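--- STAGE predict ---
source: upstream dedup step, 1 unique chain passed
mode: sequence only
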Amino acid sequence: MKQFADAPETPVYTSRFVVEKHQLITYVGHDAEDGAWQFYSKEELDDFEKEVKLIRLDDMIGLDESILEIADLPLGYFAVRKTKKDGWEIYKQNDEEDEES
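--- STAGE serialize ---
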């Protein structure tokens, strides 16, 4: 099984919907800029500051081990799925600076 290269105590972004309401993770991002990981459900974040949570990577894995399937997601990419049975679809993040040049 794949493992994340980041340390277990690495802080990752998620939402209260994932942590408190146990919503399915449907979006995983691995930011090119700073290497940050983001794990979100399909719920809209109406109030980002109130709804986003920072937790440890190993706690995130504890909430949903299926994210290990994309533990090797490269910097600058994101993965999406609709259901837990669906495979992850991987895409390159848009680089806004390149688009504006």
